[in-house]
Amino acid sequence: MAFKILFTEDALIDLEIILDYIRADDPEAAARFGNALLNHIELLATFPHIGAPVKQRKRVRKVLHTPVRIYYRIHEAKQIIEILHFWHTARQEPNF
Predict the structure, then answer these.
(1) Which residues contact 29 (CB under 8 A, 6 or more apart)?
(2) For a designed S-S bond to 51, which of 6, 61, 74, 75 qualifies (C-beta 3.0 to 4.6 A apart)?
(3) How confident is the chain (96 residues) per 10-residue block, as mean pLDDT?
(4) Looking at the DSSP assignment, which residues form a beta bridge with residue 51?
(5) Considering its fold, how many domains does the chain have in total?
(6) Residue 15: count of CB within 10 angstroms of its CB
(7) In a domain, 95, yes or no
(8) Residue 94 falls within a domain, yes or no?
(9) Is the CB of residue 45 less than 8 Å from the CB of residue 56?
(10) What is the model's pTM?
């Protein structure tokens, strides 16, 4: 059974900031990247454990869609993947 994917408000804000940055130079590239990123996230519905555990945060995992790390949490009992943050790899690791 596929997991349902939910986005936190913080994740949506992160995503908008990243896409706005790309959109400033190339709106079509921003659309392509945004779609590719969301398609990558859809893999988590079928393969929720594909990401690596985050050492500093118990139960948080991360997966890379270059140049963006996607931080998420698995809620096994509810069959939910909670997308916590999108983080550009040029930035330091988040403190959440």
Answers:
(1) 22
(2) 61
(3) 94 95 95 96 96 91 95 96 91 65
(4) none
(5) 1
(6) 19
(7) no
(8) no
(9) no
(10) 0.90
